[in-house]
């Protein structure tokens, strides 16, 4: 059985998860919006920008007493998965444009 203290810790974790997921959802929507400003599939991945983001979040982790290697691992996984979705968004956007050009 969980002690009172463990229950309190878990309650705090639950609250943080709610905030984290809301922010991740916000980030995800922005990443998908970025697709509308790209001209080809190579632009979607934007590896130089990914490295900028990784360097930035590692610094933030350091400042907050968190292992930057953990943050890097999490961010690389998240960004890779988001890029997959951004690619789908880009494909849809391109094919809609093609449909319009063909006067569908
Ligand atoms: C959002 C963008 O698209 C992709 C997603 C990124 C991210 O999740 O931070 C960064 C670069 C791109 O791989 C972008 O180009 O800025």
From TrEMBL:
BP GO annotations: chorismate metabolic process; salicylic acid biosynthetic process
Alphabetized UniProt keyword annotations: Isomerase
Cleaved signal peptide residues: none
Cytoplasm listed as a keyword: no
SMART domains noted in UniProt: CM_2 (SM00830)
GO molecular function: chorismate mutase activity
This protein's record includes keyword Isomerase: yes
InterPro entries for this protein: Chorismate_II_sf, Chorismate_mutase-related, CM_dom_sf, CM_II_prokaryot
Gene3D superfamilies: Chorismate mutase
Top-level division of the source organism's lineage: Bacteria
Annotated ranges, domain Chorismate mutase: 1-90
Stored PANTHER family: CHORISMATE MUTASE
Protein name: Chorismate mutase
Organism in which the protein naturally occurs: Shimazuella alba
Record lineage: Bacteria, Bacillati, Bacillota, Bacilli, Bacillales
């Amino acid at each position: 059985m969980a002690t009172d203290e463990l229950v309190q810790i878990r309650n705090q974790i639950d609250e943080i998860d709610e905030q984290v997921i809301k922010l991740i959802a916000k980030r995800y929507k922005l990443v998908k919006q970025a697709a509308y400003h790209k001209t080809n599939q190579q632009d979607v991945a934007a590896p130089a920008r990914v490295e900028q983001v990784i360097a930035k979040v590692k610094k933030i982790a350091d400042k907050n007493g968190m292992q930057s290697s953990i943050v890097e691992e999490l961010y690389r996984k998240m960004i890779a998965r988001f890029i997959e979705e951004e690619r789908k968004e880009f494909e849809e956007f391109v094919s809609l444009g093609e449909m319009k050009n063909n006067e569908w």
